[in-house]
Amino acid sequence: MTTTILPVYFLILFCIYLKPQAIAQNENQFIYNGFHGSRLHLDGVAEIHPNGLLQLTNTTKQEAGHAFYPVKLNTSSRNLSFSTYFVFAMVPELPNLGGHGLAFTVSPVMNFAQALPSSYLGILNSSNNGNDSNHLLAVEFDTAKSPEFNDINNNHVGIDFNSLTSNASAPVTYYSTSERISKILPMISGKPIQVWIDYDKGENLLNVRVAPIQIPKPELSLLSTRINLSSILLDSMYVGFSAATGAIATSHYILGWSFSRNGQAKNLELSKLPSIPRKKNPSEKPSLELTISLIAVAVSLIFTVAGIVYYVRRKKYEEIREDWEQEYGPRRFSYQDLYKATKGFKDKGLLGTGGFGKVYKGVLPSSKEQVAVKKVSHDSNQGMKEFVAEISSMGRIGHRNLVKLLGYSRRKGELLLVYEYMPNGSLDKFLFTNEKPNLNWSQRYRILRGVASALMYLHEEWEQVVLHRDVKASNVLLDADLNGQLSDFGLARLYDHGKNPQTTHVVGTIGYIAPELTRTGKATKSTDVFAFGAFLLEVACGRRPIEPQASPEEMFLVDWVLESWKQGAILETSDPRLGGYYSADEMSLVLKLGLLCSHAKAASRPSMRQVVQYLDGAALLPERLLDGATVNNEASVEFVMSVPSSFEKISVDSVSSSESILYRGR
Ligand SMILES: *[C@@H]1O[C@H](CO)[C@@H](O)[C@H](O)[C@H]1NC(C)=O
Ligand SMILES: *[C@@H]1O[C@H](CO)[C@@H](O)[C@H](O)[C@H]1NC(C)=O
Ligand SMILES: *[C@@H]1O[C@H](CO)[C@@H](O)[C@H](O)[C@H]1NC(C)=O
Ligand SMILES: *[C@@H]1O[C@H](CO)[C@@H](O)[C@H](O)[C@H]1NC(C)=O
Ligand SMILES: *[C@@H]1O[C@H](CO)[C@@H](O)[C@H](O)[C@H]1NC(C)=O
Ligand SMILES: *[C@@H]1O[C@H](CO)[C@@H](O)[C@H](O)[C@H]1NC(C)=O
Ligand SMILES: *[C@@H]1O[C@H](CO)[C@@H](O)[C@H](O)[C@H]1NC(C)=O
């Protein structure tokens, strides 16, 4: 059997993987619907995936990658022109934090070994930036705000001549013809984005157009610059892409590319473009998926049916147990039980997908108890012992407003955490969608008090200090009686009382990340309080901390509430869905407390114990504290976004000067 099937199988593989996807390559134009068999010159971390996807950078920090194609431009010709059309995608490592960006680049050289990553985008360095002898044209798609190059924001396109200080730039937006408005297009959404760049010497115009996938080439340019490129372009140039990462990293991809040096660049066949790998867990290798599928096919061909059945049965329930795990015995679940409880981790039982993995509903076979099982990917064995010790001790944490961790199980590359089941799901669904009924004020107030007391318990009352590090409405679950239950200790790390907390990563969700956390990377009780402040405001106002679609005054919830408070109209920010049915005293307390917790200065924020006292009415909120609370969240958010560029360069003494950005008034 195998002798006849295998050659056919390889023939099919051969056809799938070697089918040339590039067509019509000549000196005047080329089109790549995927980059198989392409004539691109790659360097740095750039690579072409088996499916034809060009990856310029992965999430390794401080790296750059390039891909170039040599072209001849006739600079003496009267009608020097070029036109290019490409589709890119950017998948950030941390949600909503871009680092750093990519640039369509035209350059007389393709050796960028001396160029710097990060804000230099892999095309220049500090000594040649701005030098006219570079003959460099770049159209940058920059996702971090680099103050040193006068960047306008963390999501802009810029036209650069020989320098990273753009001669023209614009926030990335597109015109929605259906809604008849211009909309922000976040580049780090992970979704494919189309770009058209056209230069016509006759008119001396360089035009850049941008649109989400499937939307036709816009009539209006996002950026249009009058420029005589004769002084920049030389006869022999390389066109292509450069991308770079900084202290925070983004995977930069090019899906397809068409270029023409006279006439419009040809259209790409969007349906043929390679797909972007789904966001991988850190422990997986990029090629693992392919390897596994190939092995699986080969195995299924070679082994007999009986062999397969045996293999699958054995593999299905395989788990890892080590000697040291004996002591955690009672908290250990068998994988087989969890598999059965969740009916094989079917998507039907999916409760949600968090930052760390998918959560499934299950019913334990023995006790018939309902549980939620969270699948977390993890690195092989590294730190596993410590982690299991942590989750085991977390299992001993008991508080009526904390979702109880019942135990765990583990397999290769996978950790399963078993939690008690919360029938009403997460609070954000109640607040921000119409899927769930509205919550009245007394229900909301009870939830706030519950979560506050849970955080106080974690910070002060348990045997170790536990930082939550991702307090927000979507991490608060509701039990059958609509009591708030703080969940997701996936991000939490335990610290002994008195020890200095250390972290390696800025974790959290933008809008809830305290300004000092982005600078120091150190989570503290006070950064949890900051996030709790954002949470107070979202529950009271019924909206998220940052609402890109809102008017500029209302976009940042904290700023809006603060302004309204200054104008004596704080209650106007309350959730309209409450219909005015709330205790004005309580509402005003929650809003002011939200502002106080969101104070830019960590030292001015209350402790969770004080927060609980204010909410219980056991202490009065001192209003004068609010006077200095000029938070200016917008600046801090922009600062967060600019971290990748400035972080590595900010030395300890310059931190204080950049800090002043945060207190800048409006
Ligand atoms: C990125 O790519 C480089 C080179 O291909 C590799 O060494 C590195 O491990 C990759 N990093 C990640 C995070 O995948
Ligand atoms: C460049 O353009 C000039 C003027 O149009 C023409 O005379 C010359 O042959 C062109 N050179 C090449 C290499 O195409
Ligand atoms: C900057 O790049 C240029 C050109 O690649 C190179 O000659 C120069 O040595 C580099 N300077 C530094 C400081 O790396
Ligand atoms: C620009 O670069 C050229 C060649 O690398 C060098 O000779 C010149 O000094 C540089 N100019 C400046 C202002 O740095
Ligand atoms: C770009 O801007 C710089 C600084 O404003 C200016 O010196 C330079 O001439 C401009 N270049 C072009 C090609 O417009
Ligand atoms: C562009 O600049 C070149 C020399 O730098 C000049 O010869 C040419 O006339 C200019 N073209 C236009 C349209 O301004
Ligand atoms: C220049 O323009 C003329 C007419 O517009 C066209 O026939 C010719 O092919 C163009 N040459 C180049 C090199 O683009």
Automatic annotation (TrEMBL):
<keyword id="KW-0732">Signal</keyword>
<dbReference type="GO" id="GO:0005524">
    <property type="term" value="F:ATP binding"/>
</dbReference>
<keyword id="KW-0472">Membrane</keyword>
<dbReference type="InterPro" id="IPR011009">
    <property type="entry name" value="Kinase-like_dom_sf"/>
</dbReference>
<dbReference type="Pfam" id="PF00069">
    <property type="entry name" value="Pkinase"/>
</dbReference>
<dbReference type="GO" id="GO:0004674">
    <property type="term" value="F:protein serine/threonine kinase activity"/>
</dbReference>
<dbReference type="InterPro" id="IPR013320">
    <property type="entry name" value="ConA-like_dom_sf"/>
</dbReference>
<keyword id="KW-0418">Kinase</keyword>
<dbReference type="InterPro" id="IPR008271">
    <property type="entry name" value="Ser/Thr_kinase_AS"/>
</dbReference>
<dbReference type="InterPro" id="IPR017441">
    <property type="entry name" value="Protein_kinase_ATP_BS"/>
</dbReference>
<dbReference type="InterPro" id="IPR001220">
    <property type="entry name" value="Legume_lectin_dom"/>
</dbReference>
<keyword id="KW-0808">Transferase</keyword>
<dbReference type="Pfam" id="PF00139">
    <property type="entry name" value="Lectin_legB"/>
</dbReference>
<keyword id="KW-0430">Lectin</keyword>
<feature type="domain" description="Protein kinase">
    <location>
        <begin position="345"/>
        <end position="621"/>
    </location>
</feature>
<keyword id="KW-1003">Cell membrane</keyword>
<keyword id="KW-0067">ATP-binding</keyword>
<protein>
    <recommendedName>
        <fullName>non-specific serine/threonine protein kinase</fullName>
        <ecNumber>2.7.11.1</ecNumber>
    </recommendedName>
</protein>
<feature type="signal peptide">
    <location>
        <begin position="1"/>
        <end position="24"/>
    </location>
</feature>
<comment type="similarity">
    <text>In the N-terminal section; belongs to the leguminous lectin family.</text>
</comment>
<comment type="similarity">
    <text>In the C-terminal section; belongs to the protein kinase superfamily. Ser/Thr protein kinase family.</text>
</comment>
<keyword id="KW-0723">Serine/threonine-protein kinase</keyword>
<keyword id="KW-1133">Transmembrane helix</keyword>
<dbReference type="InterPro" id="IPR019825">
    <property type="entry name" value="Lectin_legB_Mn/Ca_BS"/>
</dbReference>
<dbReference type="GO" id="GO:0030246">
    <property type="term" value="F:carbohydrate binding"/>
</dbReference>
<keyword id="KW-0675">Receptor</keyword>
<keyword id="KW-0812">Transmembrane</keyword>
<feature type="binding site">
    <location>
        <position position="375"/>
    </location>
    <ligand>
        <name>ATP</name>
    </ligand>
</feature>
<dbReference type="GO" id="GO:0005886">
    <property type="term" value="C:plasma membrane"/>
</dbReference>
<feature type="transmembrane region" description="Helical">
    <location>
        <begin position="290"/>
        <end position="312"/>
    </location>
</feature>
<keyword id="KW-0547">Nucleotide-binding</keyword>
<keyword id="KW-0325">Glycoprotein</keyword>
<dbReference type="InterPro" id="IPR000719">
    <property type="entry name" value="Prot_kinase_dom"/>
</dbReference>
<dbReference type="InterPro" id="IPR050528">
    <property type="entry name" value="L-type_Lectin-RKs"/>
</dbReference>
